[in-house]
Amino acid sequence: xxxxxxxxxxTAGQLFSRDGFESTTVREIxxxxxxxVASIHYHFGDKERLYIEAVKHAHCHQPPSPQPWAExxxxxQKLAAIIHQMMTVMLDAETPSWHTELMMRELARPTxxxxxxxxxxxxPLFAQLLCVVTELxxxxxxxxxxxxxxxxxxxxxxxxxxxxxxxxLLVGENHFQQLTTIEESARxxxxxxxxxxxxxxxxxxxxxxxxxESS
Length: 215
Hints:
The protein is mainly alpha-helical.
């Protein structure tokens, strides 16, 4: 990425997370970044587009792998790979605090940045997760149920990023550090999710096997 473009995203992101979109001016961003006003127009077009890019960067500053599992992976292995990839992002120790702060602000009051984020990053990953969840369930499970189960997987991962202060207060710093390693948290979420999906699959199989009901 162009160094000036990167500098503008980083600087603007910090200011947006602190003061919000409306209260942050183009002149202020450029002053802190050590660039001129024209640089924003050149790289982004306007402040709104810069804000969108800052939010996208805050959500995932390293683009995820389009297929995080090896060829020939089983559905449980695929789910484990997706969860591990998500937790690698959620628990990245090098993620600046403004990333989470800006995302919390955006989630509280969604803007056009939220729509761009969903369209370019979240929707493709959710579709991938939904496909794997579908592989783990009988065909009789309705789409809306499969979507809800995929939401549950994502929710477990998001907890580790957006509720860190609460987690520390609940279990103490020492236990919190043990709970929030990438490997252990990914393993825990995978096992819990697979158990839940298996329960749904068993329930659906039992319903389908009842006399007088089609499969």
